[in-house]
Specification:
Elements (H helix, E strand, L loop, with lengths): L2 H20 L2 H56 L3 H75 L2 H59 L7 H30 L1
């Protein structure tokens, strides 16, 4: 292999590698879609010209057909009037009109076929363009997704989750300690008040029960002889119970202070 061929191959290889790095697939696909769409108006103009030729030939055929019928009528009228010279002239025009009509009919047939083929080609091109556009949009979406995944992968490579994990654990432990302390303070603040209220309610219940028991004994006649002494004893028990309750409340207050 010659030196020039090796240099040429090296040049094309380097140029291709550089283009691969610079070339953006999304931009290339979008430009391809735009180019395909830009061809549609030119293609429509070409189809329109072919169809215009077909319509022009159709009108010429119609005009020649009418001319042939008119010349035929004139020839018949000239023959009836005995004007063979005029009839002969009309016959010459009729032959030329019939010849033109045959050519125009053949041209019209070719033009009709050309119009159908042009329309079919235009429709096929539009279908292919739509198909390519859909494929291009899918490829562009895949390219964007790949780009996002690449960025995420680069971010994950530079992200050290261990350092931040220790920070999260430390902050979680501090918050848990703070919540536990607050709950303990709340429990202590409410338990002392609840305890006092429970003690008072319990003593009040005992007094009510003693009074009810005394009432039952009086109704049953069990306190006729010693009702006064029993009443005094119950009253004494009630006073002693009240003193015990007050002592308990005072003791709880001293503990809290």
């Amino acid at each position: 292999m010659g030196l020039w061929m090796r240099i040429k191959r090296l040049f094309f290889a380097g140029t291709g590698a550089a283009l691969d790095k610079v070339e953006n697939p999304e931009m290339v696909l979008q430009q391809t879609i735009r180019d395909m769409r830009d061809r549609v108006p030119d293609l429509n103009n070409s189809v329109a010209q072919v169809m215009a030729t077909e319509r022009m030939l159709a009108k010429n055929k119609e005009r020649l057909s009418e001319q042939v019928v008119d010349l035929d009528s004139k020839i018949k009228a000239s023959v009836k009037l005995g004007r063979d010279d005029i009839a002969t002239a009309y016959i010459g025009q009729l032959q030329q009109a019939q010849l033109d009509l045959g050519k125009t009919s053949a041209q019209l047939e070719h033009a009709a076929n050309a119009s159908q083929q042009a329309l079919k080609a235009r429709d096929n091109y539009v279908l292919q363009m739509q198909k390519r556009s859909a494929e291009a949009m899918q490829l562009i979406s895949a390219s964007k997704q790949a780009k996002l995944q690449e960025q995420l992968a680069q971010t994950m490579e530079t992200f050290n989750i261990g350092d931040d994990a220790s920070t999260f654990n430390e902050m979680r432990e501090k918050i848990d300690r703070r919540v536990a302390a607050a709950e303990a303070k709340l429990q202590l603040g409410t338990s002392s008040v609840d305890q006092k209220m429970q003690d008072i309610e319990r003593e009040a219940m005992d007094i009510q029960l003693q009074d009810k028991l005394l009432e039952y004994k009086q109704q049953m006649g069990l306190l006729e002889s010693g009702s006064n002494s029993s009443g005094k004893q119950i009253a004494a028990n009630s006073e002693a119970s009240d003193e015990v309750t007050l002592d308990r409340v005072s003791l709880n207050e001293e503990k809290e202070s």
